[in-house]
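Case 441 in the screening queue. Each case pairs one protein sequence with one candidate compound; here the compound is zinc ion. For every case the pipeline is the same: read the inputs, emit a complex structure as tokens, and attach any notable structural observations.

Predict complex for case 441.
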Amino acid sequence: MVAPDGVRRADVLIRDGTIAAVGPEVAASSPRIVEADGLYVLPGMVDSHVHLMDPGPTEREDFPTGTAAAAAGGITTVIEHTHAHPVRTPEELREKVRYLRGRSRVDFGLAAHVWPDRIDRIALTWRAGVTFFKIFTCTTHGVPGLAGAELRRVFEAVAATGGVCLVHCEDEELTATAEASLRAAGRVDPQVLLEWRSREAEATAVSMVVDLALRTRVRATIAHVSSPGVAELVATGRARGARLAAEACPQYLLLREDEVGREGALRKFTPPARNRDGTDEAAMWNLLRDGVLTHVATDHAPSTREQKLAGDIWDAPFGLPGLDTTLALLLDAVARERIGWSDLALRYAEAPARWYGLFPRKGGLRVGADADLVLVDPGAERELRDRDVISKAGWTPYAGRRVRGRVVATFLRGREVARDGLATDRFDGEFLPGPGARGSA
Ligand SMILES: [Zn+2]
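Case 441 output:
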């Protein structure tokens, strides 16, 4: 089993959906025994940045399908938010929780969006049980951007509740100005993405957010950190006392900046991939291993190939599918010694569970925790393929990569929810109220 301090041989005893004991030979008299010889046992992964579009544009994804991809991929908890159908008030949260009853195969938290005319609802929404507040510094996906005095007010409101924000950082003015001039020049080539969503636009917004986080003492996650330069800004803020987390997504560890030229809209996500060579890639993995990038999340935001390629580069929806492939890519990174086994469990389970208030129920193989676990065959090799993708996307940017390490089975609160790449037909996923609701209970 993979523990925070290393890998060791152990039995895991599960009783009533929770871990009752961990140690040598504890499960010998158990009524049902799952043999895991030669396999590694990891905690179920906790993916804190997921868009399942349900309710919303379900032609792109929905909860039954997206959580099947999660379960098969070794993820037992997702924290979900959908831009096209935001949760901004306690009423909207309750309505979504009701709607999702019986639709999820894994446990889930729900995040809120902050709307400029509903800042006064932040405290109530936190106490209703959202996991975090999503904020954009630039208007994106139809969500209004926040900056300056307004962003400061939001941070103060969230800090006062003890809540946490996930902030998408790109500067509104720099992106808008670039867009206007690129459109005026008639540019429709895919490289516009790199000039439109520039490194400068990201760094400018991150600097502002780090500064405001320091002043307001808010807890904030810098979403999808794209490069070592951005990670450095966050690390500097943290060294000065800011309460910041830095999110690592596989697309910034493994995809390259120049791929957008060949693949067009299939590489349209923002900020775009920044790595130019193996040195950049190694630097990002080192930042994850060292914890400067505090945790991994997918930012799963799928569209089908057809949806992606329907219009020109401006029309195409942003985002990539990720739930099917992220743990597979991290297992391969362990095999390639980019990170260790314990780094994986820490960065994709324990750290996000702690930061978002789901620990110790989620995030680790500990006595008393939910029995969410993943069995992994560390030696199995395979090629990632579009046809194995369960997400409605039906494709993956990693198709054709050979990876080592395979999820054999996934258990949610002691029950098997996936085996050999396929989810079972159980819809046992429960809503996990955020810490604001538990505190007031
Ligand atoms: Zn996102």
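Case 441 observations:
- The pocket of zinc ion is lined by residues 49, 51, 299, 301 (CB under 6 Å).
- The chain has 15 helices and 18 strands.
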